[in-house]
């Protein structure tokens, strides 16, 4: 079964990569007819893991071209920072926010719809994924081509990293999200090491310190940070209406803090406590919900998050739990090997499922990010079994 699904996943991704190099989020769900840097980076990483290096390279080249042709004051910024760590470009916070857009059209154009589009976690993922690709392939030509876009993104991150943004689910735009910060810290650290850039490394450390100071609750990571920076408010102050039912909740994306971004070690007690909270609150019938109050399509179980939980357990060496996650994902495959975004069993709020269907149709199926995370878990599991 799994060999067939691996082959089907690779073929599906390959067939739905635009000539530009962009990966469409879902070919059958019109609302997702864009390329997200977050989704695309993990898709590219999955392709790298399975030997499809040219596909991954095409995506990273698309990102470079998209940043260079669309971002605010790109030329002025890269002229002001000839090499990472030298000089300051003076980007305003609003310019930086406008530049760090989560999604682009497949031909690399701006999407100016009202749907939330400021999600800087995708750029942290891209920095991490770019370094992973270069590490695996030795593609130094791509690294040289990527230097200026990287410099630009590092500059933008330096301006806005602790400001509110939409989270990775396009929600809560007035909050600072722990998993978003983890993505940025992890990406900055990886690219800083490659570029020998003290500024990027210092920024990564500052973000990690912020997470450990403001993104913790009861010995584990929290969905939201307890302090927020705003353009008109520094130092940050706790909001009067912020309560523990919101600020201290758990989100499955907090897994990212350990895998792959290493903000916390896998076995750090704070990370272990976070994973236990996710398993206690968000795992249902083997699948994983995004967070306890999720109402998107009623709040179903997401395949990519089940794969992520399995990836964590695989890294920890708990192969029984990793295999359970892997089998659950494989069992959700529809005819033809398509993996959906989520399954609609044991919903958080079943009443809200039909209104979403009436508005947008059934949940996305296939979702290329689901296929990517399956491929990542499949390779991690197989590699760990061979090691043993």
Can you describe this structure?
The protein is mostly helical and 388 residues long. It has a single domain, classed as Alpha/alpha barrel (Glycosyltransferase). It is built from 15 helices and eight strands. The chain has helices spanning 2-15, 37-49, 53-70, 74-80, 93-99, 121-137, 140-160, 178-195, 198-214, 244-247, 269-282, 303-316, 319-331, 353-360, 368-387; strands at 35-36, 103-104, 216-217, 220-221, 283-284, 287-288, 301-302, 342-343. The strands form four sheets. Strands 1-2 form a two-stranded antiparallel sheet. Strands 3-4 form a two-stranded antiparallel sheet. The protein starts with a helix and ends with a helix. Mean pLDDT is 90; it is low at 82-87 and 229-246.
Q: What's the overall geometry? A: globular
Quick one: biggest sheet? Answer: 2 strands, antiparallel
Name of the CATH architecture: Alpha/alpha barrel
What structural category arises from helix and sheet content? mainly alpha
Number of domains: 1
Give the H and E element order: HEHHHHEHHHHEEHHEEEHHEHH
Assembly state here?
A: single chain
The average pLDDT value, as a whole number, equals 90
Poorly predicted parts: 82-87, 229-246
State the end-to-end distance: 22 Å
CATH topology: Glycosyltransferase
């Amino acid at each position: 079964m799994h060999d067939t699904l691996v082959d089907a996943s690779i073929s599906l991704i390959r067939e739905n990569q635009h000539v530009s190099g962009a990966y469409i989020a879902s070919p059958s769900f019109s609302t997702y007819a864009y390329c997200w840097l977050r989704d695309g980076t993990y898709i590219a990483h999955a392709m790298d893991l399975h030997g499809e290096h040219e596909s991954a390279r095409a995506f990273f080249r698309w990102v470079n071209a998209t940043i260079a042709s669309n971002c605010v004051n790109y030329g002025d910024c890269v002229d002001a920072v000839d090499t990472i760590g030298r000089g300051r470009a003076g980007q305003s916070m609003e310019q930086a926010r406008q530049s760090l857009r989560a999604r682009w059209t497949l031909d690399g154009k701006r999407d100016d719809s009202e749907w939330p589009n400021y999600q800087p976690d995708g750029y942290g993922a891209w920095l991490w994924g770019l370094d992973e690709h270069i590490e695996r392939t030795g593609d130094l030509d791509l690294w040289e081509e990527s230097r200026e876009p990287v410099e630009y993104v590092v500059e933008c991150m330096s301006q806005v990293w602790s400001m509110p943004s939409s989270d990775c689910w396009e929600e809560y735009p007035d909050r600072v999200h722990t998993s978003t910060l983890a993505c940025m810290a992890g990406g900055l650290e990886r690219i800083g090491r490659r570029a020998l850039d003290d500024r990027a490394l210092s920024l990564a450390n500052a973000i990690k310190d912020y997470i450990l100071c403001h993104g913790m609750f009861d010995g584990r990571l929290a969905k939201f940070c307890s302090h927020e920076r705003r353009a008109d408010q520094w130092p940050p102050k706790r909001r009067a209406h912020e309560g523990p039912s919101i600020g201290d909740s758990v989100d499955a994306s907090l897994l990212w803090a350990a895998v792959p971004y290493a903000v916390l070690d896998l076995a750090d007690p704070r990370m272990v406590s976070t994973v236990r909270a996710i398993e206690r609150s968000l795992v249902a019938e083997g699948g994983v919900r995004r967070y306890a109050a999720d109402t998107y399509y009623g709040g179903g179980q997401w395949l990519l998050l089940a794969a992520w939980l399995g990836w964590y357990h695989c890294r920890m060496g708990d192969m029984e739990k990793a295999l359970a996650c892997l089998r659950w994902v494989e069992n959700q495959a529809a005819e033809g090997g398509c993996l959906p975004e989520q399954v609609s069993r044991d919903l958080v709020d079943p009443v809200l499922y039909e209104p979403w269907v009436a508005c947008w149709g059934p949940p996305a199926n296939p979702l290329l990010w689901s296929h990517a995370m399956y491929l990542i878990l499949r390779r991690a599991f197989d590699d760990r079994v061979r090691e043993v």
